[in-house]
Structures are given as C-alpha cells and as structure tokens.
Design brief:
Helix content: 10-25%
Distance between the termini: 73 Å
Radius of gyration: 25 Å
Shape: elongated
Largest sheet: 9 strands, antiparallel
CATH class of the largest domain: Alpha Beta
Number of helices: 6
Number of strands: 26
Length: 368
C-alpha cells in the first residue's frame, strides 16, 4: 500500500472516527483503525462492536492495500502535523508515514482480523435532510436512559402514525415525543428502537453533504446512516418499547404560556440553591404569573417571578432542575406552553402553535 494526500483532508475526519474506537482493550484489534486504499480513495474504519464508523477521502493511490494501525497514536500524531503532504507506505508489517520534515512508523495488525462493519446495507428506508435531523432529533435524544439496565429505554423509538414518522425517547422520569420528523417519505415495516448513542453520533458527522440516507438490514438487525463519504452503523435494540401513549395526559387543569429565555434564566438562578436539596425546583402558577423557587435549609431561598399568560386553576409542582434545563436547551423556539393537572401528575411542555412536539416530566413529591 502506498498513498499520498494532504493532512488537512484527514484531520477533518479522524477525531470523529475515534468515537468508535474501543477503549476496553479486550480485543486489541478494536483499538486500531482499518486503512484501505483502493480506487483513488483511502477509507478508514473503526468499531467497538456496538457502533462502526467509516469515512473515505480522495488520495493519490500508487499501490492498493489494507492494514490496521493503532488508532490513538495515529490520531494524536496527525493532529500535530499541521498542513502538509503526507505519504503512507506499507512495508512488510510496518506502515511508514513521511511528511515534509517527519518520519514515523506504526506497527500493524492484519486487516483480515478487523471485524466487518456490516454484511449488507439493507433496504433504504429514508432520505432525510441534515437540518431536519439536527432540529428534530436534538429535541428527543437527550431523554433516553444513559444506563442499559432496561435496554429499550436506552434507545430512541422510530415509529410511524397516520401523520408520518415520529421519535420517542424516555428514561422513565421524562419523555420526549416529536412527530412529523422527516419531510421525505419513509418506509417503515415495523417500529425500530435505535440506540441513543447512534443517534447522537449521527448529529456529529462532519460532512458537507446535506442529505442522510438511512438503511435497515432486517437480516442483521442493523441500521446504517450514510452521509457523503461517511457511514455510521449499529445494531438495533430488540427489546419491546413501552407503551408511552398511556402516560401522556389527554387534558389539563392549568395552562401557562411562557417565554423560554426568561423561564430558563429563572431555573438557572434557582438551581444555585437547589443543589443542596436534590436539585428540586418548585414552580407555582398564579394569576398571570409563574413563580420559580428553591429552598435549602443550609443555604437559603431564592424566588424568581415572571409574567405568563395563564388559564385554568392556580397550581404548584416540583421538578428536578436538570430535567427542566435539558428540555429548554433542546428547544430553540422562544414561546412555550406548560400544562399540568396537579402536583402529583406529569407536567407537559409544548411549543406554542406546534402540536408536533411535547416533553413530559414526572414531578417530585415535596412536603409543604
């Protein structure tokens, strides 16, 4: 193998590829990048067996070949090279890197030992715009569970109703639902549960191409996202997703229209005092106002009042401040609606004049 390219072209991709490199060391080959030079391209792949990423760049290929090299050392070296012409040459079991004023060599492992990222692409189910993915997926993915004690909750549900495709994520304490996710036609044979990690990585792909192709292989139970020269693949979660519709309230007793920025600032201010009391923030809804407060016996109390358009009963409810800040950070729209029926029932956040999104948070029971 012998290839020549500008270091800038690879530097733009290499940090993202590192997201799929295994840090556990159980299988040494998973700590490596797979390099493949063929048809005027250098393709680099990484996998930790949960997800796989590959990306290609145009290079001058003098001799085709494939080999694996230590990913971290290669990435760290490349990030310090600046902009220069680089040549990679495979001689026996050593990969030599030469630049304008640098020579380095890497010990290798056989390419044949590197796991295949996927056997087949599967059926193309959707072509989505990157901008749609960024806007709608960000509103949902943060609600998925971080741990995998209940596998389904560590994923994002991709389902279809009469209005189109919807996304759902929940960790048991909060739930995000976004309808009409993709503007283009999507062919779903059944609901899919996609690991939240894959969804987050999808948003990190650095490609100029604005469309993302989505493939599903039923045979291998995998989902594949392709954007430009970058591919991201992972295994679908086979656990059954909970019936989320049962916990979404169908009516409310109190409704408040609020400005997101003012509400977000109020939560941040009260979070300073809430740290000492399990992060509990209290929201009191009165006549044309919302009062946000936190009380800590060891620190003190703070109260922030803001104007709001309120209808229905006066009410009060308590939440984990982090959950409130998470949803406020995920939504870019300025005017929100908050609905509730009582201090022990879920509170629901919506975007004003937009029925496609809702975020539900379970309340915290407080004394007094």
């Amino acid at each position: 193998m012998k290839v020549t390219f500008l270091s800038d072209n690879l530097q733009n991709k290499i940090s993202y590829l590192g997201h799929a490199v295994s840090l556990r060391g159980q299988l040494p080959i998973l700590s490596n990048f797979l390099l493949e030079a063929k048809n005027g391209k250098l393709t680099i792949s990484a996998t930790d067996l949960e997800i796989g990423i590959s990306s290609s760049l145009p290079v001058n290929v003098e001799k085709e070949g494939r080999i694996t090299i230590p990913a971290k050392n290669f990435s760290d070296l490349l990030s310090n090279l600046g902009s220069q012409k680089i040549t990679l040459t495979l001689e026996d079991k050593t990969l030599n890197l030469t630049g304008e004023r640098i020579k380095a060599s890497f010990q290798t492992m056989p390419a044949e030992d590197f796991p295949k990222l996927y056997e087949e692409r599967g059926e193309e189910i959707a072509l989505i715009k990157k901008t749609d993915a960024e806007e709608f997926v960000l509103r949902v993915v943060f609600s998925a569970a971080i741990d995998s004690s209940r596998p389904a909750l560590s994923g994002v549900l991709l389902d279809q109703d009469k209005e189109g495709v919807l996304l759902v994520a929940t960790d048991g304490y909060r739930l995000s639902l976004q309808k009409n996710v993709f503007k283009t036609k999507v062919r779903l044979k059944k609901p899919l549960v996609v690991p939240a990690r894959i969804i987050k990585e999808l948003l990190s792909i650095k490609e100029e191409e604005g469309n993302i192709k989505v493939f599903v292989s039923e045979k291998n139970n995998q989902i594949l996202f392709v954007q430009g020269e970058t591919s991201l693949v992972g295994r679908l979660i086979e656990a059954e997703y909970p019936d989320y519709e049962k916990i979404i309230p169908t009516d409310f007793g109190t409704k408040a229209e609020i400005e997101k920025e003012a509400f977000q600032n109020a939560i941040k201010i009260c979070s300073v005092f809430a740290r000492e009391t399990a992060n509990i923030i209290k929201i009191s809804i009165g006549r044309n106002k919302v009062v946000v407060s936190a009380n800590s016996p060891s620190v003190g109390e703070d109260v922030v009042e803001m104007d709001a358009k309120v209808s229905g009963e006066e009410n009060e409810i308590a939440f984990n401040a982090k959950y409130l800040l998470d949803v406020l950070a995920a939504v870019s729209e300025e005017n929100l609606v908050f609905e509730m029926t009582g201090p022990l029932n879920p509170g629901v956040f919506k975007i004003k004049d937009d029925d496609s999104f809702l975020h539900l948070i379970m309340p915290i029971r407080v004394q007094g």
